[in-house]
Every structure is written in structure tokens, then in C-alpha cells.
Write a structure and sequence with these properties.
Spore Coat Polysaccharide Biosynthesis Protein SpsA, Chain A; nine-stranded parallel beta sheet; binds calcium ion; 20% helix; binds uridine-diphosphate-N-acetylglucosamine; 471 residues
């Protein structure tokens, strides 16, 4: 990438001011997600492939602040278009920011998430190598209704005009090569002419597509670059959103499989675009792996499991229907089936978390086990400890949360109730069914339950009394 102001500088304008009425949504169109990312964020990422952030301007209008927030982390700039008066008008909103930037200007739409970064790079490469003033991405479609049509010169080489649907003559109406709306201009040629484009007589909008004729009038050419139709899909409705989502997810699972991940029935699996998965890991059907999750090598992710924003080390076995959120699982650990690592947990190497066990803000030490039916919240469990079935940490007193600390190699009997704050010393035992309200030292056994009462013959005596009473 060239530095920020040279004759080779690339700037990008992303048009994202529209509401997207046909989405029938309270939310601006570009904030909807496909492949786990907002549409606009994906376009910003493609733009970053060819331009540095200070040379990328996103035109915002509807829900401007929320659109800004969605991509602010990339360090890009913004222009406001309060009224959407056309694609050319949107570009005029960036004139002050960009008119003195030499080099090349790329136009992208915030609602085209399938456009590959490599295609944007190819567009810029073609324009750089060409004598033309602009290059426009086009494609041939079966049904061109609604798109601007590409009119080529007599030789069929350059584009002489882009004609919007409403203005088409019958011959132009039959043209199947359409305008994607994605262009690369020699920046100076665009900025010196755009202000002279007059609003369209019928709609009152300023059309960026009119630049092609403005350039032609000055003897400057626009060249077409034909791209794959799939990449140019613009999202207008929720149906198109679903199509884009399916394509993005298929691209992701394909990439993972080619990198050595086994995916059983990939069409049933949802993996967000930023997820990383190591070789020889097996993903079973119906799994969702979301957000910034990283999974190591040689793991198994069981059917129906959902993992979000978590780090799973090598050789971890996650059995079916396990939910993991913002947690870390160490090498060789076993989790599930039906386990829930709700939030901020650290499960260390070789630990076991079994069925119907819920963890929240809990550290499970190396090789510690909680194999069945437990709630461990705001707790730390020392390495090698065993947590019996039905153990509950009572971490909440109705107002505050409290910690439970269980030291290494402890044994917590089944159905123990640990009323926090409470500590169990190293190597200690808690008897089954105990309610533990006081901390216990190391190497200690604690009972906290009523003593068993035994009454031999009581049942038959009771039956005898009942028989007498009914006579
Ligand atoms: C535009 C093109 C058309 C092309 C089609 C491809 C024009 C005049 N027409 O038509 O040739 O085939 O895209 O999809 O350019 N936007 C703004 N501010 C505005 C207007 C639009 O930010 O004032 C944004 C929209 O949010 C959208 C994009 O620009 O992301 C395209 O706008 P849209 O109204 O969908 O353009 P089309 O009429 O479909
Ligand atoms: Ca459109």
C-alpha cells in the first residue's frame, strides 16, 4: 500500500446512508448481519485491502451514529448525508475531505457484503494499468430489471453510458449487462466534474452513473470489468440477507475444510468469519461457532453445541449440546454433553465438566471434575478436586455475589450446598448432603446435615393404627 498522499494513493468511499425500506426493519440496512458481521463492516474490511483507514470515508445518513459505531474501530472517516438525494449527491458529501487526495477513488456500497477484497484489489490494479479515467464493475444477469444498464461503444469495448431502468429505451431495456455501482476513478477526473452533474429530471436525484457520460464528453474512457454476479449481490430484503449469509458461511466452512478441519455436513454448521480452528478438529452437524472464537487442533465439537467468543485449546472434547460463552478451555479437557460454560470461565487442562453442569465466572483447576448436575458460580476449584453430583455454590445473597474457594484435591460430596463466601482447605472432604456455611481448613472432614434417625417397625405400626381408625 502506498503512503497516504502520493499519485498512487487509493481512497474509498462507502455509500451507506440509505435506510433500506424493503428490509422492513427498525435498524438501518447496513447494520444487519451476515456471516456474523454487519454488512458495512465487511465492506470496510474489503476497502482496507486497498486503502489506509484515513483514506476511507463512509457516507452515513440513517442511524448515522450507530453505523459509525459499527466500524469506528477500523479508524475510517465519515461524511454525513442527511437527505438521500442520490449516489452522486452522496459522493459530493465527501468532496471537502477527499478532493485534494490524488490517485484513485473507489466507490463501494455498504450493502454488498459478498464483494471479495481480491476483486476490489483487481479493480484498482486494472484502473492503474489503464489509460481510461474510470473502471466500472459489471456483470451479466438473467433478469436486469431495476439495474442501471451498461451501454458500450460500437466496438463493444468501453462503456459510453449507464442508463437507469426508468430511462431505458426498449433496446436498452433488453441489455443484460448491468452496473454493479462499484467503480474506480482517477480521482482528479471525478472531483473536477462531479459538481457539474445536474439532478435527474424525473427523480431529482444526482446520479453518480452520469459521470460516465460526463467523462465521455471530455474524451475520457470508462472501461468495464466483468465480475462474478454472486459477489455483487446487494442486500435489499431479508431474503437476500439470508442468501448472503448462506454464501458467506459456505465460503468459511470451505476455507476451513481446505485447511484441514473435518466438518460433518457443513451446510448445517454456522461458523462466523473471524473464527479460527486448528487441523484435525472435527465439527459435528448443527454446531455454531461464533464471534472471535479460537479452537485448537484435534478437538471434537459435538452436535448442537454453540461456542461464542471463547478459546478452546488442543485436544478438547466437547460433547453434544454444550453452550460455551467467553470462556477458556485448556488442553485435553472434556466438556458436556449438555454443559453450560455461561460466562468468563477458565477450565484448565484435563478438567471434566459433565452433563447439566453450569459454570459462571469459575476457574476449574487442572484435572478437577464436576461430572454431573452442578452449579458453580463465582468459584475457584483447585486442581484434582472432585465436585459431586448436585453440588451448588450459593453465590448470591439477594444483593451481592460472593466467592467460593475450593483448594486442590478436595472432595465435595453429592448434593452439597456451599453458602458463599466460604473456603474449603486443601485435601478436605465435605460429606454428601451438607450445607456448608463456615470455611473449613485443610485436611478436614465437614458434615453439615441432620443426623439420621432410625425407627425399626414404625411403618407396620402406622398401618395397624390406620386399620383401627377406619373400622
Ligand atoms: C444504483 C445505480 C445502478 C446500479 C445499482 C446497483 C445510480 C444512479 N444507480 O441504483 O446503476 O445498477 O445501484 O445496485 O447510482 N445511497 C446513499 N445515498 C444516496 C443514495 C444511495 O448512501 O443518496 C447508498 C444506498 O444506501 C445504497 C447504495 O448507495 O447502499 C445504492 O443506492 P440505491 O438507491 O440502492 O441505488 P439503485 O437505485 O439501486
Ligand atoms: Ca440497490
Amino acid at each position: 500500500m502506498s503512503n497516504s498522499l502520493s499519485p498512487e494513493t487509493v481512497s474509498v468511499v462507502i455509500l451507506a446512508a440509505g435506510l433500506g425500506t424493503r428490509m422492513k426493519s427498525k435498524q438501518a440496512k447496513v447494520l444487519h448481519r451476515a456471516g456474523g458481521l454487519t454488512l458495512v463492516e465487511q465492506v470496510v474490511r474489503a476497502a482496507r485491502e486497498v486503502a489506509s483507514p484515513e483514506n476511507i470515508v463512509t457516507v452515513v445518513g440513517h442511524q448515522a451514529q450507530r453505523v459509525r459505531d459499527a466500524v469506528a474501530s477500523h479508524g475510517v472517516r465519515f461524511a454525513e448525508q442527511t437527505e438521500q438525494r442520490g449516489t452522486g449527491h452522496a459522493l459530493l458529501m465527501c468532496r471537502e475531505m477527499l478532493a485534494n487526495t490524488p490517485g484513485y477513488l473507489v466507490i463501494l456500497y455498504g450493502d454488498c457484503p459478498l464483494l471479495k477484497a481480491s476483486t476490489v484489489a483487481e479493480l484498482v490494479r486494472r484502473q492503474r494499468a489503464s489509460q481510461a479515467a474510470a473502471t466500472v464493475i459489471t456483470t451479466h444477469v438473467a433478469d436486469p430489471q431495476g439495474y442501471g444498464r451498461i451501454v458500450r461503444d460500437a466496438a463493444g469495448k468501453n462503456v459510453t453510458a449507464i442508463v437507469e431502468q426508468k430511462a431505458c429505451t426498449p433496446e436498452q431495456n433488453a441489455i443484460t449487462e448491468i452496473n454493479s455501482g462499484i467503480y474506480c476513478f482517477r480521482a482528479s477526473e471525478l472531483w473536477t466534474r462531479i459538481a457539474a452533474i445536474t439532478p435527474n429530471a424525473a427523480s431529482g436525484e444526482i446520479y453518480l452513473t452520469d459521470m460516465v457520460e460526463a467523462l465521455a464528453a471530455a474524451g475520457l474512457a470508462t472501461e468495464p470489468m466483468i465480475a462474478d454476479e454472486e459477489e455483487l449481490l446487494g442486500i435489499n430484503t431479508r431474503l437476500e440477507l439470508a442468501v448472503a449469509n448462506r454464501i458467506l458461511r459456505a465460503r468459511k466452512t470451505t476455507e476451513l475444510m481446505l485447511d484441514g478441519v473435518t466438518i460433518d455436513r457443513p451446510e448445517t454448521v454456522s461458523v462466523d468469519l473471524d473464527v479460527r480452528i486448528g487441523r484435525d478438529t472435527i465439527i459435528e452437524p448443527g454446531v455454531q461457532i461464533l464471534g472471535a472464537t479460537e479452537i485448537g487442533e484435534d478437538c471434537r465439537i459435538g452436535t448442537g453445541s454453540i461456542i461464542r467468543d471463547s478459546r478452546i485449546a488442543d485436544g478438547v472434547d466437547i460433547d453434544a449440546y454444550t453452550l460455551i460463552g467467553t470462556s477458556r478451555v485448556g488442553a485435553g479437557a472434556k466438556v458436556g454433553p449438555f454443559a453450560r460454560l455461561r460466562l468468563d470461565n477458565d477450565v484448565e487442562a484435563g478438567a471434566h465438566i459433565g452433563n447439566f453442569v453450569e459454570l459462571k465466572k469459575t476457574k476449574m483447576g487442572a484435572k478437577a471434575k464436576a461430572n454431573h448436575l452442578a452449579y458453580l458460580g463465582d468459584a475457584s476449584i483447585g486442581g484434582g478436586s472432585n465436585i459431586g453430583a448436585g453440588t451448588i455454590t450459593c453465590n448470591y445473597d439477594g444483593t451481592h455475589k460472593h466467592q467460593t474457594r475450593i483448594s486442590a484435591n478436595s472432595f465435595i460430596g453429592s448434593n452439597a450446598t456451599l453458602v458463599a463466601p466460604v473456603e474449603i482447605g486443601e485435601g478436605s472432604y465435605v460429606a454428601a448432603g451438607s450445607v456448608i456455611t463456615y470455611s473449613i481448613a485443610e485436611d478436614t472432614l465437614a458434615f453439615g446435615r441432620a443426623r439420621q434417625v432410625v425407627k425399626p417397625g414404625w411403618p407396620s405400626k402406622r398401618k395397624g393404627q390406620a386399620a383401627k381408625a377406619s373400622k
